[in-house]
Structure to design on (874 residues):
């Protein structure tokens, strides 16, 4: 099977889209066909042994449209920027052409309407055009002004009649028939007037002088062109998000070739090139830092608000910006393989793909135009049969033709989908298809992988319990880190990182020995250290005394029930203390899980951890159900079991072992920092490692589906109401009729309204963001912040102490070391019970035992080398 993209020209409405889809879908060997009215593109998957691109294009041309295959090699050569510029240029040219036609039509329509309606409205009309004796001259003047309008808008007749002759009528066919019928009847009326003058029958002249439809023919074409022009302007805005993504990529790159720095177009960078990045420069491709360092702003891609430090061995992402420092990196992913290019491709494909709900509009649009033509014919016949004049019957039939609007039906879904996927991309959420965006809204169960999804996936120290009265906490941590320095175990690394974060000097250990899977032995500052689990200490006869064993065992069991891994340290044959290590819960996980519950979603945690650890985390986060002791091969089966019970399941994961479960779930959601396999298996990719984005994606999906339902309702309602009104159903009872001119204006307005309604999605804001914005504007604490500080307040209250809290905004913090410096400086201030620093928000929160002046706190931050911006009570 081969998949090929085609550019399709001549499509103007949903009926065109449905005609092309039906035509190509019937070809032997074609498996799938997806036609995008917005992008004027068609994607076809076909069997190369039965079909080729030439025959597909010929089949489309045969029914009255233009089609040509896109050359993938050319597309790759020019890159996304070139393709986007070409698309923008085509859209601009189309819009400018539509604008010229509109202005020309209006300039001709104004005098035409004045001549046709002036005398009836008692306006001053030139003498040679006034009076019954000049009726034929007046009619000829109208014809002279109408014919140029016809030719200016000839594409309606060209496309519409061609489609009609190929038995695939579209909206242009309706316009062409309605306007053409008005013109032909006007010519007929002129001949009847000439006959009247020739035979002296002024009554006949008077009858037909008021039955000219030239102004209706021109007005229909002009009003439809107004709608098309406004529609083109509105549709151009649907791709704004995609355009912003394309513009993120630097246009040039500085590479080192043959020992010389060269500035070349970014598209010409090849894998293996050494790229030089200086302060303020954008990173053109993905790669790995070789030398130097920098602070890279990744907000546009990952959503991280704080620049990330990059040193040798770290990866850099295309379209991010180096804020400070200079470094060189080796290009690893270039061209269409860069992160930015993949994001653009996903957003573009999702915006042009078809949601299941769109099939309803497609089915209706495919038969809509023939039905409308049939209704118009029946309308004329019925009015003639009940004794009305031919002019009356024709006017109603033309009104039926021009008020019908397949455009509104066709635009209802794709415009909302394109705006929705673009908005998601702005939020760092990549939705791979329209189908995924639609299905997200119906999810009722969220299954969360634990490690790397709920938790950070990186172990860190949570508790330090000193049991040797001769040691302070800092001394114990320093010596414990020294003892563990020789180990490569992740838990040992966590102890080392905690000591570094506290800026504790770590002495050098001697005589280091490791017992695989059990513990280590080392000499630190002349003291013999032994560290490991309880079994290791028991083997070394350190817990044989029950008075020693009991308190140690109590602490170990308590920590284990909290989901933590205790490391026991013995110093010179005595228990020195316990350090607990755990895979810490992400800051955003608590808020996200609480929000899932508020949204009415059933939350399930799926983990390979033991039941005790799983239950500890479940209880701490308020998760409804935890499934533990799950092998990687069993995750998919658990998802299937939930589906068999009738649940619509979204699975969130990040690892290779999550890939089968992500594929099995109704919606697979991959954390952006996860593995390539997990990302490829998922329907939605989160560029930020935040579960809050899952809630944002579901909220956005619900907003998009509501918007589509609203669009479809009004499109159907408009036609259900408008067609009978145009046919004259209310005339016998109320004397109400709809002129063809008003009908054409209403038809144009309906399309513009549908597109404008869909564009409202550009202003979508997630509930969490709205809540925090409102809280900030009212001077309150954001909801996410409340979650992190509630425990601090409770802790202080339990101790019976005053718990005053102040928040400082601190500028100049760039990394975890800066965070630690500020935290240490504030904690050292007299009266400060506890200080916590949020690097992302650039805020420091202190819990006070007494009232400490704001200036004292701000001076402490200044002395640490950072800039305090403000200090206020929380």
């Amino acid at each position: 099977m081969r998949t090929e993209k085609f550019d399709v020209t001549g499509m103007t409405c949903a009926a065109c889209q449905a005609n092309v889809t039906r035509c190509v879908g019937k070809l032997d060997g074609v498996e799938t066909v997806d036609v995008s009215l917005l992008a004027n593109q068609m994607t076809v998957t076909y069997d190369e042994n039965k079909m080729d691109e030439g025959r597909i294009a010929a089949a489309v041309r045969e029914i009255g449209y233009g089609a040509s295959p896109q050359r993938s090699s050319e597309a790759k050569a020019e890159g996304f920027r070139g393709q986007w510029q070409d698309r923008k240029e085509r859209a601009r040219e189309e819009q400018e052409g539509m604008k010229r036609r509109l202005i020309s039509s209006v300039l001709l329509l104004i005098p035409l309407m004045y001549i046709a309606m002036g005398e009836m409205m008692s306006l001053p009309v030139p003498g040679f055009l006034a009076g019954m004796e000049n009726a034929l001259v007046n009619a000829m003047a109208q014809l002279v002004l109408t014919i140029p309008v016809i030719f200016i808008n000839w594409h309606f007749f060209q496309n519409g009649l061609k489609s009609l002759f190929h038995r695939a009528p579209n909206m242009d066919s309706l316009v062409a028939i309605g306007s053409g019928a008005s013109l032909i009847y006007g010519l007929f009326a002129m001949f009847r007037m000439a006959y009247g003058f020739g035979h002296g029958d002024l009554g006949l002249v008077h009858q037909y002088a008021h039955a000219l439809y030239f102004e209706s023919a021109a007005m229909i074409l002009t009003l439809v062109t107004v709608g098309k022009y406004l529609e083109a302007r509105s549709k151009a805005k649907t791709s704004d998000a995609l355009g912003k993504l394309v513009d993120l990529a630097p246009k040039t790159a500085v590479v080192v070739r043959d020992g010389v720095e060269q500035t070349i177009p970014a598209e010409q960078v090849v894998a293996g090139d050494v790229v030089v990045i200086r302060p303020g420069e954008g990173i053109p491709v993905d790669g790995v830092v070789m030398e130097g360092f920098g602070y890279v702003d990744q907000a546009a891609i990952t959503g991280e608000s704080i620049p990330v430090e990059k040193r040798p061995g770290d990866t850099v992402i295309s379209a991010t910006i180096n804020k400070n420092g200079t470094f060189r990196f080796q290009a690893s992913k270039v061209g269409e393989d860069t992160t930015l290019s993949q994001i653009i491709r996903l957003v573009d494909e999702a915006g042009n793909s078809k949601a299941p709900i769109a099939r309803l509009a497609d089915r209706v649009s495919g038969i809509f135009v023939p039905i409308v033509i049939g209704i118009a014919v029946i309308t004329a016949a019925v009015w003639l049969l009940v004794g009305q004049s031919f002019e009356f019957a024709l006017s109603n039939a033309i009104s039926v033709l021009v008020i019908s609007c397949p455009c509104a039906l066709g635009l209802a879904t794709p415009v909302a989908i394109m705006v929705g996927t673009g908005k998601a991309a702005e939020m760092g959420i990549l939705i791979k298809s329209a189908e995924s965006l639609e299905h997200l809204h119906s999810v009722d169960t969220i299954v969360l992988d634990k490690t790397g999804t709920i938790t950070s996936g990186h172990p860190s120290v949570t508790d330090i319990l000193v049991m040797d009265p001769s040691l302070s906490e800092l001394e114990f941590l320093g010596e414990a880190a020294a003892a563990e320095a020789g180990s490569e175990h992740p838990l040992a690394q966590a102890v080392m990182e905690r000591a570094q974060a506290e800026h504790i000097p770590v002495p050098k250990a001697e005589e280091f020995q490791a017992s695989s899977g059990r513990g280590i032995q080392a000499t630190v500052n002349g003291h013999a250290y032994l560290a490991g689990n309880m079994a290791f200490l028991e083997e070394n006869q350190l817990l044989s005394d029950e008075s020693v064993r009991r308190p140690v065992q109590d602490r170990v069991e308590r920590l284990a029930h909290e989901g933590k891994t205790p490391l026991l340290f013995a110093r010179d044959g005595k228990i020195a203390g316990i350090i607990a290590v755990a895979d810490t819960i992400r800051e955003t996980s608590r808020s996200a899980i609480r929000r899932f519950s508020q949204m009415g979603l059933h939350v399930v945690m799926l983990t390979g951890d033991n039941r005790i650890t799983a239950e500890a985390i479940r209880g701490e986060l308020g998760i409804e159900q935890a499934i533990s002791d799950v092998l990687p091969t069993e995750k998919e089966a658990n998802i299937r079991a939930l589906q068999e019970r009738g649940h619509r399941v979204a699975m969130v994961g990040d690892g290779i072992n999550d890939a089968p479960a992500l594929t099995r779930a109704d919606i697979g959601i991959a954390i952006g920092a996860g593995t390539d396999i997990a990302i490829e298996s998922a329907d939605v990719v989160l560029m930020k490692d935040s579960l809050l984005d899952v809630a944002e994606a579901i909220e956005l999906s619900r907003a998009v589906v509501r918007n589509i339902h609203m669009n479809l309702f009004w499109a159907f309602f408009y036609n259900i109401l408008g067609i009978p009104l145009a046919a004259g159903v209310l005339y016998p009872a109320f004397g109400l009729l709809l002129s063809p001119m008003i009908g054409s204006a209403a038809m144009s307005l309906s399309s513009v309204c549908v597109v404008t309604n869909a564009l409202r999605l550009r202003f979508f804001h997630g509930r969490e963001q709205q809540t925090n914005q409102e809280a900030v504007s009212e001077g309150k604490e954001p909801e996410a912040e409340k979650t992190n500080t509630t425990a601090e307040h409770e802790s202080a209250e339990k101790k019976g102490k005053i718990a005053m809290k102040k928040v400082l905004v601190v500028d100049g913090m760039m990394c975890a070391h800066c965070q630690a410096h500020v935290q240490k400086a504030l904690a050292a201030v007299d009266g400060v019970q506890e200080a916590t620093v949020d690097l992302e928000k650039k805020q420091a929160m202190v819990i006070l035992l007494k009232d400490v002046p704001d200036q004292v706190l701000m001076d402490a931050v200044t002395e640490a080398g950072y800039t305090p911006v403000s200090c206020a009570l929380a």
User: Anything to note?
Assistant: The first helix runs from residue 14 to 25. Residues 72-78, 769-802 have pLDDT under 50 and may be disordered. The radius of gyration is 36 Å.
